[in-house]
Design goal:
The longest helix is centred in the last third of the chain and has 31 residues, at about 170-200. The termini are close together. This protein has one domain. Mean pLDDT is about 80; it is low at about 1-5. Helix 2 runs antiparallel to helix 3 and helix 5 packs parallel to helix 9. It has about 260 residues and is an all-alpha fold. About 80% of the residues lie in helices and about 0% in strands. It has helices at about 5-10, 10-35, 35-50, 50-70, 80-100, 105-120, 135-150, 155-160, 170-200, 205-230, 230-260.
Length: about 260
């Protein structure tokens, strides 16, 4: 059950402990698969604090997490994909700034739960290839839009990557860069634009965000070791199973929040 704002302020140590564990575990998961960790962390944060605050903490931690993976896997990044992706990224940011969107917690969970099934439900022959310029632009637009809409968008990004003929290191490295700039956009939008609109202070100290850095690095570094030992076959199969199961649980949580 979500913790109230008052309860959050009265239990800072408990919230800090949960956050430490969540960031460490989800950074490890993202370090291995380049996916799912962000959605799990958004689930935890959304259950513990107000939506705007959850978006800010999630944006900061996931930006650090992706930046760490970018550093570890920098020689595998496909920069042509990044360049076209950035065009769609910019279009999404401008669109959300113009409409001043603010999310509902139940809707956020439901959208996060539906995301993993979108790509897998489509016929194999029409699944897009991120290496094509037009698809990279579309990917940047959709992924960034869903990051601003629901806090995470990994499964949509996975949809564009898992059908492309790339190695697991190329997938995780390139995705880390594109996801990283998306989370940076979310951090700026919810930390500055939305905060100015609601005129309420954040329920956590900025020091929380700085404390995430070593945790993200540790989790990602350990995850990278597991990634190196995993085959491409097992990587893709486990990733599909993980995202589908997570989607079901999140959708159920969203329905319960709306009915509460």
């Amino acid at each position: 059950m979500p913790v109230s704002l008052r309860g959050l302020r009265q239990n800072p140590m408990l919230i800090a402990a949960i956050l430490i564990i969540a960031v460490l575990i989800t950074s490890f998961i993202s370090g291995v698969f380049g996916m799912a960790g962000g959605i799990i962390l958004m689930w935890v944060l959304g259950s513990l604090m107000p939506v705007r605050d959850a978006f800010v903490v999630h944006g900061a931690s996931q930006f650090f997490s992706n930046a760490t993976r970018v550093w570890f896997l920098r020689r595998y990044i496909i920069w042509s994909i990044v360049a076209f992706y950035a065009i769609g990224w910019l279009l999404a940011i401008v669109g959300f700034y113009l409409i001043n969107y603010f999310p509902n917690k139940g809707v956020v969970f439901i959208i996060l739960g539906i995301l993993p099934w979108i790509g897998f439900a489509l016929p194999r022959h029409i699944q897009p290839d991120i290496k094509k310029p037009g698809m990279a632009i579309l990917c940047g637009l959709l992924v960034t839009a869903f990051q601003l809409l629901a806090g995470a968008s990994g499964p949509i990004l996975d949809y564009f990557y898992l059908s492309a003929k790339l190695t697991r290191h190329e997938i995780v490295g390139t995705k880390a860069f594109t996801q990283g700039i998306g989370h940076l956009a979310k951090l700026i939008y919810y930390g500055l634009v939305v905060s100015a609109l609601v005129e309420e202070e954040l329920t956590f100290s900025a020091w929380w965000l700085l404390a995430l850095l070593p945790l993200v690095w540790i989790g990602t570094r350990i995850g990278k070791e597991f990634l190196d030992r995993m085959s491409d076959y097992h990587f893709l199969n486990i990733a599909r199973w993980l995202t589908r199961t997570l989607g079901i649980l999140l959708a159920l949580q969203g329905v319960l929040v709306l009915l509460a």
